[in-house]
Each structure stands twice: as structure tokens, then as C-alpha cells.
């Protein structure tokens, strides 16, 4: 089910592309699987100043390419159904797909996991020239922090200015977060998304519990 | 004890809320709104400490941050001990327990006097300097006595139970100080729509207005403050921080604020509350409105309890309803301090006299004092105080117009118990110095003001030397407007309130009051109370040749206490200047460093302690490792299984079992922590050729290759296997610790040197869970779980294949770090644990054995494989490692490291080279780091030839194995070197090939 | 703690998001093999330590992962300008 395949030109494999999603027989565990957030959600208080949930097992694709490459920009827009945001520190979202600006030639596409392979193939078919797509779904997870005190927890965790005047809904910033790193995105008036690396997820979870204790932390499943 | 000095009414204390507290083991009463200092004074406690060197009794001198004597050890329990808290800043709460920091065994006892006298002789000025200069051995003798006597406070011996944290703040305007200037600045900016933070070290906003009887805009000062505070609170973007000391003002308008959130409530923070918080503020603009601190005058025995600065006396009366004595003598160089005489008289106590150092003072306050019938003695000074534990009287003498000499013979002796003195005011310039600006002297205000700065900083009020209230308010408003304008906001209208200004005369510049005797022979005249620095000491220092004020400070320790010389530094400079015959600005300036007042370690540490001290990184299989008894090793921030002991096994037994099981059947290693970088682009191959030492031009799709990476100096800094996934697609692996550094290195060269190469790098370290099965049965095991054809000729050593393992899409790499038949399985990390567990389900019959980093190290050392960072240290090139085979000198591009390796020093003979080492006694394991010598009998220091980098017991071989550097080692096979150890043993070892097992490499090819 | 404007993210960020990579505008010799040991040593090891204007490379490590140049005053720590790799500074030391 997962043969190495790639847009093969003149019989050579240029890039190895692989459907990395296993069949139903294989158990997938998100980085915070063992924290048993679902159980905590059932047990924990229902009210508090900060809500946390893991948006787990999503597809994450790192997209690299030049904004000057029309084929790249058009191909992405066509395949993703959304134009890549070119304004620094912004994001776009449509349905279950969101795209974060990471750098002038880097974007993070978050989408349902089972679409990652198809989208990657689509991009490779649609785009000419120099670009790269890398599936990083296993390497990171998405945490959603919301509630009236979510901003206070962010201020304890990262040096960004998260005042509404400086951090409007949709803004994205890669930063130092809880002594590791995160891509922070304001997803709503009172909600924020953090893309964190898998190996740091456990530490960040501990940190967030500690930092939000004074406001009351509600785990959502 | 009753509160004998407490007034019936007045002040900002709540007499309906009585509180009990313990000081030096005795119970006292005070009220809500008191500080420990005001409550002690209310109770008639005169002595709050013993001095550092001379063990003289000391009393409270000030009412604020500049207090040098009233330093407390706080805490009711061992765990809640806090040292170095100023009694003048600690709010009273019911049940508060504290004791004097200075004073052993207690402040009022004379038990120290003998030690004190010894101390005084032992510690002349320059004591530290001389002690450090002369035999070091002296210090140990002195130290025991000094440390104990000095009583700098002590830290708790138990864990602090409280929570501390830090918060990052951003604002348009940071206002430091909430006195009249600060409040006006904040109000102006807030009304203009700016994001404002205003912080003040006191429990209430208002600054000196809290102890003032002035009227502002027709209201009492306190009511006016309340109205401003109320308005500020109505702005959502104004953050007001009382009990918050701005302790540091760093580059680019970065400020650190130490907020004490619960220290005024109880010993321990209420459940769920943070005790102290550091605010790390980035401000577009800063207004420093830190006010000024009053200088005491320097006169003989000016440290006897009962000597205070004049404004502090007024503060205790007006703010706390406490008159700290019965009979007051006030000495002043200026008009303002006359207010203290009025406050004292209004409190119903006797003002014995006002002694004005000026011959003919004129001003409204002076007239008011005279009108009350209070004696004013002009052209005179208090030259000496009598009394030991409390002032009992003063000697007043006439002085000349310059204040340098006592004139006439007729000295009057006045009876009193309190001496208030005022030598004028020093602007609180501390914060303005933190980023490197030097204060500037102004003769007209007799003080230093902030100098030019590159910071986006404005100043207003007392810090500028402006003390008249109407001008202070105006400066505050103007600073607020200026900041607002520079922020690009529309400046809102702010009306200045009406205040009545008093007509004042000119102050006199006097710091050190003359005595009938020369300074060196006069009774002690204290400049720095906390460090017992006297005027005579400063004169001595200057005479000994220390003419720079910085040297004088270090020589005398002036300003080195926890009060940082807030009270004494200017007086000390003035005395130095006088001795040198220079002006104060010619003598130098005094620069202050962070922090403004002492800060707890808790606040500095914040959340960064215990479990959160440093991030811990875990692989997807971590839970399994924990459940299966792994001992862990820190590799960078990663927690890696070190070994997996079974019940009752020692570490060595566990390692022996893991090593044997792997070589005899199959072992498994969690290799997920290896750095992994996905490289795509048509120039990927070219890029690899430039950053690795070996050739990559011909590596085919489906193939893997080991590579060495050097820095430009030719020295190895990382290594790993890179696989060709496609013509334009590679997967690079790096060492665990080197992952981030290698990626940054690749980006640096791509972005700065070779942007024309079409290539992108993406970290996939966390994306792939990597497990290595190694050993003769690894193929059989894998075959049970995969659809990949594992035929040994189809899937060769150094090939990779894609397929599924345990139903999960995987890439399998046939590479080996053990020398055995090995397969490295990469699956998306979400499936890591699933695949790992499936391998164990099928592995039981092969005795599949998990092994950790230690066994990995042993197995690779048996094969002579290096570990970058253990067998390399940034000073060895590939040839030093005997790895010339990994250097491609025919590559067209001068790859990184090539030119470096060709430097004269890199090609000289007799470089240290990595070799194998076989101990003569095969049971002896060389210690890593041991130094090789040719002749162990030579004199020390011996000529060292190199050191052991890796050394283990090999259970498979039945003897110890080691690798290490030896000068010219590759040419010295078979020779012996000796390792003299610290315990006297000398270990002999024979230089050999580092490949101890399977030198032909047959096992990995089966 | 410096406050650094990233020319790619186009906003100021805290210093902790960045790594400093030393003196800027040191080009790798195009033909290292033709360099003498002395020339190669100059390239490798010798760096300026000016009092005043200094050009440095910084890396926005937790943000956009881009390198860029910073002109900084080593006395006052003021950042005079930032500019992208390949561009030249506008602010240079006098004399
Ligand atoms: Zn950036």
C-alpha cells in the first residue's frame, strides 16, 4: 500500500513520496496520547479561565518555495483551494485546511491526516521548478488554548506581544515557548493554536498546566 | 509592650485592625497599614541591628528603600525564610514573624561588643582589599568570625513552598514611580489611548504625597491621588502595579519589575496564588519618575539610634501616626526640612531646636517655625551626638559659611532623643544608569541627575532635581505628552491641579559636618551605615592614594551593602572631593547596577524549577521504556534509555546481557533521537558534496552512505548516514546532540554562501520514530512483519527500502552501528509505539532484547566506530581519526574542511591520532579521560601524549576495550603507552587497531 | 536583552528568538585552495572587535529561520539598521 512513488520522469525517482497513514490495524498515538486528556476532560472541572485541547493526529505539511515562482504559487492555490498567504505572519483557513506563513519561502499546511498524501501528490503534479513538500505530521501536534485567561498563559510562556492591537485574529508567529518553540496562531477572539514539536509536547503540557493553575484549567476532549 | 509612640489619630493606618507580630522573638502590636518599621517605632523599639564592623547599635534611619539598618530576616517557618527584607518596605500582617538580620545573637544584646571591638581593629578600611592582596590564608581565619557577625541573612534550608513566575509585558509607556510626576505622566498617556504600565515599590500609589499635608486642586493630597488612581483604573489598557519594584532598566527599553503579590498578606501565599512575579517589560517609551531620596548629614556619632533623615520622621508621623521620639533636634541645610519640625510640633511633642547650617535662612517654612516659638539656631550644626543605645543629646556649634570649620568656642549642649537631619535630596538616578548612562552633577540642586542616554527615556519630577510640587506635576504631564506624541498618538488634554508653592531660600551644599577635632581623631562620623564606612575611613583611603571614587568604594566597601549606598554614596564622594581639593563632578560619579533593591531567588527562578527546570524531550516509545524499567541518560534535552536492568541486575550485568543478546540473536535500540533532515532540490547532491568530506555524486537512489562533516578549520563536528531517497531527495541523519546545530549550519551556508543552489532543508527529527534491530536474527524477525523483500542480495548492506512494517508505512535502512546485520526502521512517530510493540510480540522467540545508549556505545566501540562529540572534540580532523577513507580529495568543489585540513599544523607529523588500546591486564578498564605517557617514571608534569576517549568492558570479547588519542599513534601499533592515574596506579596499554571485532566487516553483510 | 527587528517577519522580536553568528560580510574565499595558510587563517580566525559600529549576522532561529545582518553599536548597544543577506549597510563606521 505504500510503495515508493513519485512523479517519475524519464524513469528516475526525483522525490520519494509515501502515504504515511497506516490502515486501521495500526494504532496511532498523538504526542500527548499518554496524558489521557480525554479522561481528564471527563473528570476535570467544567469551568475555568483557560481551556486546553489537543487537535491531534492532523496532517502537517511543510511547504517550501519561492513566491516568485508562479507555478508554485498557482499550483498551491489550486491544490489547496487557498492561496498561500504572502503577508508575513498571517494565515488563511478554509474548511479543514489552514495555512500558516512561516517565512517568505515557507508555509505550514494543516489538514486532515488522510489528505496529506493526496495533497502532496497533487502539489508535485501541479508545480514546476524548485519547491519542496515534507510531511511532518508525526513530528508535531496542535494545541488549542482558549478562554478569557488564555492570553495571560501566553504571556507567561512566550515573549510575543499578544495584545489584540498587536496580534489580530489570524496572526501567526514562530517563537520561544515554554523554553522550547511553538508556532502561535490566534484562531479566534479568545482562542489560540500552538504548533509544538512532538518531543517537547509533554514538557509543554506540564508547563501549561502549571502556568494556568491560578486561572483554572479546563481540559476539553 | 504598648504602642507608646502611636498618635491617637491621623495617618493611613486602620486602627480598627490591630495585628500582632513577632520581632526577635517578642510579640508586638501594630495596625493594618503599618510597615514593620513603623510598628517597631510605634512600640518604642530603638535598636534594629548591630553594625557590621563595630557592632554598634543601630536604629531606623529612613522610611523607604534606602534604609540601611532595618534589615529583616522574615519567615515563620524554615521553608518561608526570606533574608534582606527592609523593615521600611515590609507591610505588617497579622502573625508576621521576623528578626533583625544584623545582630547575633540579638540586636539589643551587648554580647557582640567584644567581638565588635576585635572586629573593628581587625577590619580597618581596606580590610577586604588588603586581605585579598596579602596571604590568602588569613582570609579563612577572619571569614568565620566576619560571616557570622556580619549576619547577611540566611536562605531557607527547606524547599520554598510558594509559586513564583514571570510574565512578559509590552506597553507604549512604562511609568516608573507613582508619585505626583508619575501619576500625571500615566494619566496623560492613558487619556491619549496609550498602553501604559505604572509601577511603584510602595503598597499604595502616591509616592511622597502619602505622607504629605499639602493640598492639590483643593483636595488633600491623598484624595487627589485616589481620584487619579480611580481614573487610571478605568482604562483597560493601563496596568497598575503597586508593591512592584522596577529593579532593572536594560537595553532597548527592557525593564524587569519585581512584584510582591502576597508578601503583605501572609508568610506563605494563599493557595492558588503566585507569591511574587517578575514582569519582563518591553516599553516603547519610559518615564522615570523615581523621585529623590533625602541625604542625612555626616556628623559625629550620627549612627546612634534616634538619628534619622528628616523626611522619614515626617513620614512616620503623617503616614503611620507614629512619632519616633519625644524631643527633636532638627539639623538642616535647606528650607524643606523645616516641615518636619512643624509635623513634630503638631503631633504634640517638643521640638528642642532647629539647627540650620546657613547663617541667614529666609523662607516661608522658616517663618512658620519661628512663629510657633520654636528655637532656630542659625549658622550652626550638630557636631556630635551623645547617647549609646539612644540619642540623649547633641552638641551644637557654630560653623563657617563653607561648613568646613567649627567657629567659636561656645558650644551648647541640648537634651533630646531624636536628631533629624537633612543635607538635601539626591535624585533617584539608579535606573537611568543601568544601560550605561552616567549621571551628571548639577550645582544648583546639589545632586546628580540622569545623564544623556540612548534609551527612549523621559524623566520627570524629583529625579530631575525638581522638588516644587507644581513643577513636579507639570513635568509629569509634559513627559506623558511627550511620550504620547512620540508614539504618534493624539495628545489628550490634561489640566494641572492648583497647588500653593512656598517661597524657599537657597540650600547650602554641606555633606560632612566639621568637628572641633580633625576627622581622623573625631568620634566616628558614619557615611555608609551598612558597611560601617566613616568619614575618617574615606579620608584614609584617599590618603593611601585611592583617588578615583571607584577605588575608594572598593577600598572602603562604601556602597557595597544591600542598600547599594543609596544613603551614603554622595556624602562619601563629597568627602573624597574635599580631601582631594576637587569638586564632586571632578571626583567622579557613581553608577548603579541592577537590581535596585534585593530580589528573591524565587522571583528570578519563576517557573523554571523542579520538573520545569529544563525541557525534557521524549520519543514516541518513551512510555514503553519507563514501563520496562529503563534507566535514563540525558543526551542534550532528550531522555534516552541508558540500559534496561532486569530485577537484581547490576548495570554491568545488564550491559553484558544486552551486548551478548544483540550479537548472538537480536537487540533493539530506540534511535528516534538522531537528528533527521529532509533535503529536497535539484542541487541537494551538490550541497551534500560541499558539506561532507566524502563524495556523493554517484550515490544511487535506494542507497545510503556514511559521511563526516567538518568545520572550515578541517575539524570534525558531526557525522551520520545520509540516504538517497530520490535523485533530488535525501534524508540526512545527524548525531542526537548535533541536530539543531547541523540544520543551522546548512542554512547558514545556503543562505549566505550558496543561495544559488536549489535546495530546501526541513527537520524531520520528531516526525520519524526510529528503531534499530540489530543482530543475526534481525532479518528473521523483520521478515515476520514486513512486506519488503529482505533477500540479502536484493536488499544489500547500505540499501534502504520502503514498505510496511507491522502494517505501518515505513522506510527501512540496512545500516549498522553495531557491525551486526541491522535494520533501521523509520515510521511516522504516531505509529512508533505500535510498531515497537509488534516487534516485541514477534521478537520473544528470538529473545529480542532492548538496549540503551550504553550498550550501543560498547557495541560500536567493539567495531571502532567513533561517536562525534565523544571521540572528537573540535580539534581532530578525519585523518587524525584514521578515517582518511571518508575524505574525497578528488571532488571538484573545495568542500568545507578541505582547505582547513591542509593547513601546516594539520599535516605535521606527530599529531594526536585515534587508536585502539588494549590493556596489558585484560580485566582492567581504562578510565575515560586518562592521559597517556611514554614513561610513567618521568617527573611531573609529565609529557602527555593523548587521552582515552572511549573505554568499556566488552562481554563479547571477554576483555576491556578502549579508544584514545596518542601522538603519532597510527605509526605506533604494538607499542605500549602508560596511563598514570590519580590513585597511583599505572595502567599499561598496547596501541592497536580500534576495530576489535570482526575486522573484515563480515557480520553486517550476512 | 536586545529588541531586534527581523527584516523577514517585519516586526521586532525579543533577543531570545535569535542566535548571533558573529561578524558579517566575511565571504568564503571562492578558491580556498589558492589561499596561503595566512590568508586562510585570516578568513577563519581573525575578527574585528570595534568600539562602535559593528556589522553582525543574526539568525531568527525560532521564527523564520532566516539569517540577516544587523548594524549595532557595541558601546550603546543601539541597533542602527537591519538588512538582508546580500545587501550592504547604510550605516558604517567613520574614518
Ligand atoms: Zn524572522
Structural overview:
Chain B: It comes from Marinobacterium zhoushanense. The complex is a heterotrimer of chains A (221), B (1006) and C (95). Chain A is built from five helices and eleven strands. With 221 residues, chain A is an alpha+beta fold. Chain A has a single domain (32-219), classed as Gyrase A, domain 2 (2-Layer Sandwich). In chain A, the strands form two sheets. In chain A, strands 8-9-10-7-1-11 form a six-stranded mixed beta sheet. The two termini of chain A are 32 Å apart. The model of chain A is unreliable at 1-10 (pLDDT under 50). Among the domains of chain B are: 14-150, 2Fe-2S iron-sulphur cluster binding domain, sarcosine oxidase, alpha subunit, N-terminal domain (Ubiquitin-like (UB roll)); 164-292 and 427-486, 3-Layer(bba) Sandwich (FAD/NAD(P)-binding domain); 623-768 and 851-901, Probable tRNA modification gtpase trme, domain 1 (Gyrase A, domain 2, 2-Layer Sandwich), CATH 3.30.1360.120; 909-1006, Aminomethyltransferase beta-barrel domains (Elongation Factor Tu (Ef-tu), domain 3), CATH 2.40.30.110. Helices cover 23% and strands 28% of the residues of chain B. Chain B contains 25 helices and 49 strands. In chain B, strands 8, 9, 12, 13, 14, 15 and 28 form a seven-stranded mixed beta sheet that branches. The longest helix of chain B has 18 residues, at 469-486. Chain B is elongated and about 115 Å long. Chain C has one domain (3-84): Folate-binding fold. Helix content of chain C is 9%, strand content 35%. In chain C, strands 3-4-5-6 form a four-stranded antiparallel beta sheet, with no helix packed on it. In chain C, strands 1-2 form a two-stranded antiparallel sheet. Chains in contact: A-B, A-C, B-C. At the A-B interface, strand 6, helix 4 and helix 5 of A face strand 8, strand 15, strand 38, strand 40 and strand 41 of B. The site of zinc ion (ZN) has 7 residues of chain C, from loops.
